[in-house]
Amino acid sequence: MERSILPPMWDVPKVFRERLGERPGRQRVMAADGHLLLVLHLPPTADEVQRRGRFFWRKPDGSWTSNDVGGGVAGLSKHLAEYADAVQKFDVMEERATSAADYFEVLEGLAPLHRAASHLHLVLQEARKTIPEDRNLINFRDLSYEIERTADLLYANAKNALDFQVARRAEEESRSSRQMAVSAFRLNTLAAFFFPLVTLCAVLGVNMRTGVEDLPPPLPIATLVVAGLVLGATLAFAINRPDRRC
Predict the structure, then answer these.
(1) 56: region left, alpha or beta (phi > 0 left; psi from -120 to 50 alpha)
(2) What does the alpha-carbon distance between residue 206 and residue 198 come to, in Å, rounded to a whole number?
(3) Which position among 15, 17, 40, 207 has the lowest Cβ density within 10 Å, counted as fewest Cβ atoms?
């Protein structure tokens, strides 16, 4: 006989063990002969490949037990509390997020948790239909819905914030690219305007006496350097001035 993943001391219907393989599989509910078995998952993490199973067995007399969080309804309450705490952790991360990387980290960790919480709610809803007289299942079903809803809203908020960050960054890059294109256009226009004059002066060898060359050194070179720096700064300011349309 193959080994069951259920605790060997559990006196559950044989069909439960037959329907379970070596791994928990998806979250689901099983019912037979007045017994109820909840196959649930622990709150998953972003880097978790294989889901960790947790089992809750309800006997026909209404008593509960679990494989690792104790007996009674307190075990199932603890299980839901773990989901609520996990969602709360990402809620705090979303509030502190300031960059696209921060929001992506929230979404990456929240996505599997959101799916698991949604499936948890479906399982408890099915269990509530199976045993409608159990008030505890009604309360757990409602609590699981609140957890799923909170995770859903948090995921939507983080997704919208990430989209906004990406759109704003794209807008800034577009504005910067347009400003660079305008500056390049101004520089090309200025170069085209003076190109014929510079070419003619170079070809004809224009050499006009201005009187600067008669000054004692190093005044001629100092004068040229200062004049060049002033003209260069003026030209740079004119080329790189912001375009109102950007």
Answers:
(1) beta
(2) 10
(3) 207
Is the confidence at residue 201, as pLDDT, over 70?
Answer: no
Q: Which of helix, strand or coil describes residue 62? A: coil
Q: Which helix (H) or strand (E) holds 161?
A: helix 135-204
CA dist 1 and 100 (Å) reads: 53
Backbone angles phi, psi at 36, to 5 degrees: -130, 130
Q: Which of 93, 101, 82 is nearest to 155 (CA)?
A: 93
Q: What was the pLDDT predicted at 1?
A: 43
- In the chain, where are the structural domains located? 14-170, 182-240
- CB count within 10 Å of CB 80 equals 19
- Tell me: the pLDDT tens digits for 71-123? 889 999 999 999 999 999 999 999 998 888 899 999 999 999 999 999 999 99
Helix axes 135-204, 73-96, angle to 10 degrees: 20
pTM of the model: 0.72
Say which residue the tokens 């690792």 belong to: 68
E strand or H helix at 220: helix 219-240
d(CA 13, CA 37): 10
Mean pLDDT of 55-60: 94
